[in-house]
């Protein structure tokens, strides 16, 4: 009988797939020293990744001269996230939390997004690997510290800038059109300076701002950023004192949330005479300023401390239902008869972009009178029941839910205290304690978020109640309207939505939007 022996197949060990690792670097300013630091970071991570036999370089992503407080401004970081989510990267390494993000909310959001696609991040300085973390507690604490460091650095920087404002040594590294920065000071750009002189000369000769913009665009003269000239661009040049060689420091400022605002008296401003070479004489600049002011007076625009006021009640308050643009006031002539009309700004610029036709001012006024008279006539059947409904909704549902959430927060606080005592007495394992504590923290944040949302909604409802009470009081004591009154529109309406030449909607401050035919 033949003897058969089964041979055991020897499998060759499978080659372990290399981990595709990417690095992220960032410097917050564009100075030579910082860019040198960025090159050092890039070289370090390239050598570090290539030195590992189980890793392969998936790319070096870097942002130059970009703030770490807002992820939306960092194109390289956004590209890194996109590549991770498209499964081109298995792991990310970065120098520290502060290089990755100094905003706690952004940091946690980015980490969670990457963990959702199984891509961990290794923060070298903190020796923190998100792939092996049992909770996000340590990450939240560290990123909060990074955010605090960023705020502190920002405040120190603002203080230093403020001092340079006061002694006139602040350097304008991004000068306006007509100037260039040579690394030390603002220098005149001869070609652009000729355009600036032409703008002032044309305006002082009586040419309108819009016509100056059209002329420059027709001659294909580029703006500073290579775009098209507009009314706002030209007006900004005519109102910029830097063309006289003088400068005003701190025209804008940054708030605690790192958002930039126009300085309308919130911060001190500093005037520095003969800061740089002039392009325009003080006489021409002051004459242009007087002309701009005169044009504003003629159009009924008065500059206040925080905004421009409109001359007409409908100005800026008529919205196109097709494209969302505002309407502009025009004078039309038909068979020798002149009348006021309102036209969609988009339609005026490009008929193909929006088909909405003009509407007559007297038609709008008549529609508003009709709508208000309907409210006066039917106040008991429309406004009074709506007011009661709003009061009940605001007082019952919202407040009950807030009280319920507050009770939940109290219970969670008690549970956390109990958890802390059990841990201190040695009855709980560290891992279980961390898991339970994180779960309670998550519940706390969810309750607080919902309370804040309900309070905001309650505040909005309260505003609507107040506005509705005012409107109801007016309709109870008013006679039927015979003529349009601008004060009534300003008092009770937010805006008009134009659906067509035959139908508009009046959006009232009390929350109602009432449609009316014209």
TrEMBL record:
Q: Which SMART domains does this entry report, sorted A to Z?
A: Resolvase
Record domain Recombinase: where: 176-298
Q: Which GO terms describe its molecular function?
A: DNA binding; DNA strand exchange activity
**Which residues, if any, are the signal sequence?**
none
Q: Which domain of life is it from?
A: Bacteria
> What residues does the Resolvase/invertase-type recombinase catalytic domain cover?
20-168
Q: What is this protein called?
A: Site-specific DNA recombinase
């Amino acid at each position: 009988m033949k003897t058969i022996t089964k041979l055991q197949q020897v499998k060759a060990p499978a080659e372990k797939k290399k981990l595709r690792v990417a690095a992220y670097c960032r410097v917050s300013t564009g100075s030579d020293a910082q860019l040198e630091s960025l090159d050092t970071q890039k070289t370090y991570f390239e050598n570090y990744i290539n030195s590992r036999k189980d890793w392969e370089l998936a790319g070096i992503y870097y942002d130059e001269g970009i703030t770490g407080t807002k992820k939306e401004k960092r194109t390289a970081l956004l590209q890194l996230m996109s590549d991770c989510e498209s499964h081109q990267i298995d792991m990310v390494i970065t120098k520290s939390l502060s290089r990755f993000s100094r905003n706690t909310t952004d940091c946690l959001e980015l980490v969670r997004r990457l963990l959702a696609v199984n891509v961990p991040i290794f923060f070298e300085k903190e020796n923190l690997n998100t792939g092996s973390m049992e909770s996000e507690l340590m990450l939240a604490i560290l990123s909060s510290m990074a955010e605090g460091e960023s705020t502190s650095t920002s405040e120190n920087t603002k203080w230093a800038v403020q001092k340079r404002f006061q002694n006139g040594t602040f350097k304008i590294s991004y000068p306006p059109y007509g100037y260039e920065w040579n690394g030390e000071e603002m220098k005149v750009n001869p070609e652009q300076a000729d355009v600036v002189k032409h703008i002032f000369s044309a305006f002082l000769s009586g040419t309108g701002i819009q016509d100056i913009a059209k002329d420059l665009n027709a001659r294909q003269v580029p703006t500073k950023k290579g775009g098209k000239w507009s009314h706002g661009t030209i007006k900004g040049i005519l109102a910029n004192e830097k063309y006289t060689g003088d400068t005003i420091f701190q025209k804008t400022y940054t708030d605690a949330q790192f958002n930039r605002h126009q300085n309308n008296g919130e911060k001190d401003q500093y005037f520095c005479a003969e800061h740089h070479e002039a392009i325009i004489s003080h006489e021409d600049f002051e004459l242009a300023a007087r002309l701009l002011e005169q044009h504003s007076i003629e159009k009924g625009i008065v500059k206040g401390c925080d905004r421009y006021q409109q001359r007409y009640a409908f100005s800026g308050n008529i919205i196109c239902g097709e494209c969302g643009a505002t309407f502009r006031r025009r004078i039309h002539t038909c068979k020798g008869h002149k009348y006021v009309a309102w036209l969609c700004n988009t339609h005026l610029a490009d008929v193909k972009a929006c088909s909405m036709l003009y509407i007559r001012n007297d038609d709008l006024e008549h529609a508003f009178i009709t709508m208000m008279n309907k409210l006066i006539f039917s106040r008991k059947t429309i406004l009074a029941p709506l007011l009661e409904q709003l009061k009940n909704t605001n007082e019952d549902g919202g407040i009950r839910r807030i009280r319920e959430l507050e009770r939940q927060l109290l219970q969670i606080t008690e549970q956390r205290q109990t958890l802390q005592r059990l841990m201190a007495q040695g009855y709980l394992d560290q891992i279980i304690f961390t898991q339970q504590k994180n779960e309670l923290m998550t519940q706390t944040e969810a309750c607080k978020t919902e309370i804040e949302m309900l309070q905001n909604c309650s505040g909005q409802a309260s505003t609507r109640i107040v506005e509705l009470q005012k409107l109801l009081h007016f309709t109870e004591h008013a006679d039927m309207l015979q003529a349009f009154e601008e004060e009534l529109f300003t008092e009770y309406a937010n805006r008009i939505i134009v659906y067509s030449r035959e139908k508009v909607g009046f959006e009232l401050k009390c929350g109602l939007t009432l449609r009316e035919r014209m």
